[in-house]
Each structure stands twice: as structure tokens, then as C-alpha cells.
Design brief:
single chain; 229 residues; alpha+beta; Glycoprotein, Type 4 Pilin; Dna Ligase, domain 1; 2 domains; AMMECR1_dom_sf; AMMECR1; AMME syndrome candidate gene 1 protein homolog; AMMECR1_domain
């Protein structure tokens, strides 16, 4: 299941339900079992995008790990790294197929943006986020700003179950505390009523950590030329 991931710069808490992410912060991973995310994953995402934009055959199978993890791919553009697409999945996918799919999906099918064009390619940056260490929160405050990503499940005014997520960097980028982040996530998930303490207490929270790696198009081209030598 595809999902949008996070929040735009200084997003107002009562703004649009479709809240984009810009993926500009580096994270403290707090890893226990070694690092999975690697720049090669970003280079592969650029390979996928380049081949699609130029109507070439898909890139060859990459050499990095093909273990299965939830993942997100984020495209940004320009020196200010404005968001151009960010989509991922909480279903564990084998990394080769998952990054191939979401590199393209986030570039061309994020409904908040027009598809990325060939002319934009030299100004792009890509980030890969590998999600790990999922834990059920005891309550809506059982997570740490800047350390955990969070996913909430709740029922809207009509009694329908809804979900929403923010990657770990979002609350820090926005300058939000825990309650502001939770309230923004409720809005993102479609809750339109008054957010009361009871609403917050009744939601289900899952916290997780993210390994994130980012490269620019210039990094990608340097890597490509080095491979040709």
C-alpha cells in the first residue's frame, strides 16, 4: 500500500490534508543491527528515472542487499531541495523491486505534483528511507521527536478507520512538539472535527526508526563516470 510520508516547510496545522515532505534532514539512526541504507540505492533510483525519461531499457539488477523492508523514495529539486515527490510503503518489499517501483511512482505518480520531466533531471536530489524497528506505542506520547517516525490509526467522524504517517525528520523540520505533530497527522489522515484529548488518547500509535541516505544528480553522474573507467 502506497503512502505519502511527511510535511512541507512550516506547514500550518490546519492546512491541506495532502501534506508533502521535503526530505532534507539527516537522521540519527540509532541502529542495532548494522546499516542497510547505502548511496548505491540512490544511484539505482536515478538509474530507474533516467531510463524511463529517455525510454531506455530498465537498469540491470543492482548489487546492494535485496532484503525486504518498508521504504520511501523522495525526490527534491534545486538548491532549496523543494519536494517533487515522496511515496513509499509500510509493506516490507525486497529492495531491488521496491526501489525500482517507488523511484518511478514517487517521480511520476505523486498526485500533488506534475510528473518529473527530463529537463529537471540535472537539478534533482533523491533520498531513500529504509524503515526499521517498528514498535507499538503505549500511548500517543510514547515516541521521541527527531528520533522516531510515527504512524497513527484512528476513526474519523463517520467511524471509518484512517491512518497517517510522518517520517522521523518531519516534526523537527516543522518545529513541532509531540501534540502538534499528532494533531497535524490527524488532519493529514482526514479528521475534520475538533481534536480533543480523548481523540488523541484513543488513537493507536506505532513508532519506527528510519535509515536515510541522499545523493544529488551530480553525485550520480560522478558515480556513473567512475563506473565507466
Amino acid at each position: 500500500m502506497a503512502a505519502g510520508c511527511c510535511g512541507t516547510k512550516k506547514q500550518k496545522l490546519n492546512n491541506s490534508l495532502s501534506i508533502p515532505c521535503n526530505g532534507t534532514s539527516s537522521l540519527q539512526n540509532g541502529l542495532r543491527n548494522g546499516i542497510i541504507a547505502h548511496p548505491e540505492m540512490c544511484f539505482f533510483c536515478f538509474d530507474v528515472l533516467y531510463c524511463q525519461l529517455h525510454q531506455l531499457d530498465p537498469p540491470k539488477t543492482p548489487n546492494f542487499s535485496n532484503d525486504a523492508f518498508p521504504l520511501f523514495v523522495t525526490w527534491a529539486i534545486g538548491k532549496d531541495k523543494r519536494l517533487r515527490g515522496c511515496i513509499g510503503t509500510f509493506n516490507a518489499m525486497h529492495l531491488h523491486a521496491g526501489l525500482r517501483e517507488y523511484a518511478a511512482t514517487s517521480a511520476f505518480k505523486d498526485s500533488r505534483f506534475n510528473p518529473i520531466t527530463r529537463d529537471e533531471l540535472p537539478r534533482l536530489h533523491v533520498s531513500v528511507s529504509i524503515l526499521r524497528h517498528f514498535e507499538d506505542g503505549a500511548d500517543y506520547l510514547d515516541w521521541e521527536v527527531g528520533v522516531h517516525g510515527i504512524r497513527i490509526e484512528f476513526h474519523n467522524e463517520k467511524g471509518n478507520k484512517r491512518t497517517a504517517t510522518y517520517l522521523p525528520e518531519v516534526a523537527t523540520e516543522q518545529g513541532w512538539d509531540q501534540i502538534q505533530t499528532i494533531d497535524s497527522l490527524l488532519r493529514k489522515g482526514g479528521f475534520k472535527g475538533v481534536v480533543t484529548p480523548d481523540i488523541r488518547r484513543n488513537l493507536k500509535l506505532t513508532r519506527y526508526r528510519s535509515e536515510k541516505v541522499s545523493v544529488s544528480y551530480q553525485d550520480y553522474m560522478s558515480h556513473w563516470h567512475s563506473q565507466q573507467c
